[in-house]
Design brief:
This protein is an alpha+beta fold. Helices cover 45% and strands 14% of the residues.
């Protein structure tokens, strides 16, 4: 490998003595840094061995005699003492709540809870968090999770970045606050679910066994059942907005106010609901095989459309109705469907479709929290599309079915992403103001760049803001791993909850998606990338100190530009298989070292980042130009942008090369055209475009005007 790099440097040397010497030095430094980096990389996760070793068990439950097999719902392992008394339970968060990390990949944590609801042991079995895989030792992770030992799961636990908050509070892993919050939520949700199911907290929270007679109207009056009605007109309007039709062309539609479908639904597990609807025998039969934590949902419908459809017969999943709670969807499967022949409740209307659906407790459905039934009305035309109009009916469990001794935090807890957003309102506001100022400057860029001093100070000032506040303080550095997480989510089942966990990152990605249509990748890469800002600021300082700036020959530059696309494709290919390998390969981005961890990392990582920055003193934004896989990922769709904001003259490129020579990323081609896939929209060329002292066409025109004026005098 070293010989190949040396031969490449020798070829580069033909382009010029300065660049050849610089290239050889740079390659040697990069090669040594990468080799040391690879050697130093260690797995960032504990061994994925779910077996409970004796030492960990003894520390959690001293004197425990026996650990049973995993059983029950949710599944746990019972720990008993020599006298047969239950000491507590050991659970896997993956088995209990299907836990996922900030990366969107599975996370599994072993948690021990005693019969008093106190956490006695925690051990991370598996995770794929990018910030934790490389750079955070197993000892750091162990120290983090051991803070939970001795905490009562009834009490709220907050995660803080530094010590000093009121107890109970957990110190986050340095540089990994969001991942720490996700781990905190995972441990508490899983432990509380097990404690509730095993009666460790006094009650399961629901009044299921109490029965009293009630007719159809009474069940609606107290909220045990709720309605959902969709008219023909409403469905037609929603479908038309998406380019579809409710009925095929030529079919006469009923009047708009006609009910397309009317549904009654609600939780049928409580005896007062289920037994009144079905009758005692049928209710006992349907609840006899329910595991702990399982629940029944009743759905009855009438009207022109069936909520069941027929697709479930082939696919096994009902495609017209689903349950949604927070950000989680619970598809209704054929094996959990129970057909009802008739209703026993008095006063019930004639309903064409009747069904009970079992929702397994292990799927994470909490009947005590609000949920909704979503009806997906398919388009009748065009038939080849999958256009659907979504209508939702909200359901909240009536208070009569709740026990008063259940801790309120369990029933009313908001989704994790909402908690994170509400706690960062100040940071969100600051970012919103900064982005507004930036977008206004870009929209009125001609006014800005005509004022050289204003442009220079705005450019430098915003880069300092991006580096210091957005990068070093907030840690809002986008990465190619975010792209891979998004692609993986699209491939395996997209949900918003993973992406909403980090508000600033989510907002930045939203801005990237929008501005891609206007300015290609330039807005992020040129203005909002903290590491890009660090490169440019250090290069500006180097230029001010008279450090020689090297111009890469155009032929060499064009070939090196392709390198970052190769790097991105390699990382993307690795992400389709072994995730830790892709995360290791993504360490070619020095973002975690230089921005997230602020160089507080093992020396090979620091050496690599410093080498990149050192090379950038001589070649502006050298990493952005040739190595950045994130830049490559954003550059791929860059040519789809709709507008051309950067002004050019006919003389640009022929004969004038002023902007091409001074472009910080050499995005201006020798013939004068700007490559949108490489341009970072720094507006440097636009400042020259209006500068009569720098732009040769303007300078020539000014001198000609002066001569004509002198001749006229």
């Amino acid at each position: 490998m070293w010989l190949a790099l040396r031969n490449l440097a020798a070829k580069w040397a033909k382009a010029g003595p300065d660049f050849g010497q610089w290239g050889m030095t740079l390659l040697r430094g990069l090669f040594v840094a990468v080799i040391l980096l690879v050697v130093d990389i260690a797995p960032g996760r504990a061994a994925a061995d779910a077996e409970i070793d004796a030492a960990w068990l003894e520390s959690a439950f001293p004197g425990a005699a026996w650990v049973g097999p995993s059983d029950g719902s949710p599944p746990t392992r019972k720990v008993t003492r020599p006298d047969g008394e239950v000491a507590g339970y050991i659970l896997s968060t993956q088995n209990v709540v299907r836990s996922k990390g900030f990366s969107g990949k599975p996370m599994d944590i072993l948690v021990a809870v005693d019969t008093d609801g106190i956490i006695r042991g925690v051990r991370i079995l598996e995770h794929h968090e990018p910030i934790l895989v490389i750079g955070v030792s197993d000892a750091d992770l162990t120290a983090f999770v051991e803070q939970y030992i001795g905490l009562d799961i009834r009490s709220p636990v907050s995660v803080i970045e530094v010590s000093g908050a009121t107890a109970p509070a957990i110190d986050a892993v340095t540089g990994a606050t969001v991942s720490s919050i996700v781990i905190n939520d995972t441990i508490l949700r899983a432990a509380r679910a097990v404690a509730m199911s095993r009666g460790l907290l006094g009650a399961q929270g629901l009044v299921l066994e109490e029965y009293s007679a009630a007719d159809w109207d009474a069940l609606f009056a107290d909220g045990s059942l709720v309605p959902l009605r969709v008219s023909v007109g409403e469905a037609q309007k929603r479908l038309a907005e998406q380019g579809g039709r409710l009925f095929p062309e030529g079919v006469t539609a009923p009047p708009a106010e006609t009910a397309l479908i009317e549904i009654a639904f609600g939780l049928a597990t409580p005896a007062r609901v289920g037994q009144n609807l079905l009758g005692q025998k049928a209710y006992n039969r349907e609840t006899a095989d329910l595991a702990a934590g399982d629940h029944l949902i009743f759905v009855g419908g009438s009207g022109a459309m069936s909520f069941k459809g027929t697709a479930y017969i082939r696919s096994g999943v009902f495609d017209r109705v689903q349950i949604v709670q927070g950000d989680r969807s619970f598809p209704l499967h054929r094996e959990d469907y129970r057909r009802i022949a008739d209703l026993a409740v008095g006063g019930a209307p004639v309903l064409r479709d009747l069904a009970l659906f079992r929702v397994e407790g292990g799927r994470g459905f909490d009947p005590g929290m609000p949920w909704r039934l979503e009806l997906l009305v398919p388009a009748g035309e065009p038939s080849e599309t999958d256009i659907r109009a979504v209508f939702a009916g909200a359901y909240s469990l009536p208070d009569r079915y709740r026990r008063s001794d259940v801790p309120p935090d369990f029933a009313d807890s908001a989704p994790l992403w909402q908690v994170l957003w509400s706690g960062r309102q100040t940071e969100i506001a600051v970012l919103a103001v900064a982005l507004t100022v930036l977008l206004l400057a870009l929209l009125f860029q001609d006014w800005v760049v005509r004022r050289q001093r204003l442009y220079t100070w705005f450019r430098v000032g915003f880069l300092v803001f991006t580096l210091v506040w957005l990068g070093w303080i907030m840690g809002a550095q986008l990465s190619v791993l975010n792209v891979l997480t998004f692609l993986e989510a699209v491939r395996t089942g997209f949900t918003w909850d993973t992406f909403l966990l980090e508000p600033l990152i989510f907002i930045l990605w939203g801005l990237v998606a929008v501005t891609m249509l206007f300015w290609a990748r330039g807005v992020f890469c040129g203005w909002l990338c903290p590491f890009g800002a660090l490169q440019e600021l250090t290069n500006r300082l180097a230029a001010w100190l008279k450090v020689p700036q090297l111009q890469i020959p155009a032929a060499v530059h064009e070939r090196l530009v392709a390198l970052k696309y190769v790097i991105f494709l390699v990382i993307f290919g690795l992400s389709l298989g072994a995730t830790p390998l892709a995360q290791s390969a993504a360490e070619i981005e020095p973002f975690k070292t230089a921005i997230i961890l602020k160089f507080d990392r093992n020396w090979p990582f620091v050496l690599y980042a410093v080498t990149i920055l050192g090379a950038g003193l001589f070649v502006p934004r050298v990493f952005c130009r040739y190595l950045c896989p994130l830049g490559a990922a954003l550059a791929l769709p860059a040519r789809l942008h709709m507008f051309r904001w950067l002004r050019r003259r006919s003389e640009c490129g022929n004969p004038c090369q002023q902007c091409a020579v001074t472009c910080p990323v050499q995005a201006i081609q020798p013939r004068g055209a700007i490559n949108p896939a490489e341009c970072i929209h720094c507006l440097h060329c636009q400042a020259y475009y209006y500068d009569e002292e720098v732009c040769p066409p303007l300078l020539r025109q000014r001198k000609l005007s002066q001569r004509l004026a002198a001749a006229g005098d």
